[in-house]
Amino acid sequence: MMEIYQAKDYSDLSRKAANIISAQIIMKRNCVLGLATGSTPLGVYRQLIDWYQKGDLDFSDIRSVNLDEYKGISPEDPNSYSAFMKSNLFDHVNIDQSNTYIPNGLEEDSERECHRYNQIIHHLGGIDLQLLGIGQNGHIGFNEPGASFEKETHCVQLTEDTIQANSRFFSSAEKVPKYAYSTGIKNIMQSRRILLIASGENKSEALYQSLFGPVLPSVPASILQLHNHVTVVADEAALSRIRLEKLI
Ligand code: PGA
Questions:
Q1: Spatial contact of 75 and 37, defined as CB atoms under 8 Å apart
Q2: Lowest mean pLDDT among 58-72, 169-183, 188-202, 208-222
Q3: Has this prediction a pTM greater than 0.90?
Q4: Which of 236, 240, 230 is nearest to 205 (CA)?
């Protein structure tokens, strides 16, 4: 089942997506959330923090696993996804940070780190709700075009497109790490529910190809068409390639 919700704009998108996450938290107080970094989830996290501060949400029993982390970067590095999650969510809610998991960018042995991270996901009993952004090239997590649909956590070499897109956070494109640990499409597809968020005209082609094009490794997010519970929340600009009658 795929539901597509059109949001008026970014703040509406953030509120709608945060509502879905908050319903998940209320229905299962110890659920496992799959979390994502990037610009798109920032408004969702701000909304969740706001509801927490108003006393409407309790994160104390929540467990979380993040999609990915740069390899070769320490969790203290401000560009690490670990630091991102702390400053944009974890430090502002009552989540027990020992129950939040992110790949360890400092582990040099890729095989060991990927195995360790997969074990964590399995021991947690899988992911109840996976939040996903989408890259302009259709990537999910760091699963770039051409990635195998069969992979679990693995070490990926970032594409030039992704390095350029992410260089806005670094002083230069050369400073962007070249490798990352990412959960694989198989981990994502095993999540019980997926919440995909997309904002802006620059995502419209990727979103259209992913939701209505053929399912192909060249468009990693297209595999989501085969998942049995995907909810898409996107703003008008991101949905501009998709005809309105396909929307809820
Ligand atoms: P963004 O990234 O939210 O920063 O656009 C999404 C992604 O690349 O997965």
A1: no
A2: 169-183
A3: yes
A4: 240
CATH 3.30.1490.110 is held by the domain 2-247: no
Torsion of CA 70, 74, 76, 77, to 10 degrees: -60
pLDDT by residue (tens digit) across 156-169? 999 888 899 889 88
Whole-angstrom Cα distance, residue 127 to residue 7?
A: 25
Q: Where are the beta strands (DSSP E) in 17-167?
A: 32-35, 63-66, 68-70, 100-101, 129-132, 154-157
The rounded Å distance from CA 200 to ligand 1 centre is 11
Q: How confident is the model at residue 247 (pLDDT cuts 50, 70, 90)?
A: low
Residues 6+ apart with CB under 8 A from 214: 222
Classified as helix, coil or strand, 161 is helix
- Say how many Å lie between the first and final Cα of the chain, rounded: 13
Closest residue by Cα to atom 8, ligand 1, is 135
Angle at 198 between CA 185 and CA 188, to 5 degrees: 15
Contacts of residue 215, Cβ cutoff 8 Å, sequence gap at least 6 = 222, 223, 225, 226
62-79 tens-digit pLDDT: 999 999 999 999 999 999
Structural domain spans, the chain: 2-247
Cβ of 141 closer than 6 Å to ligand 1, yes or no, is no
CA of 140 to the centre of ligand 1 (A): 8
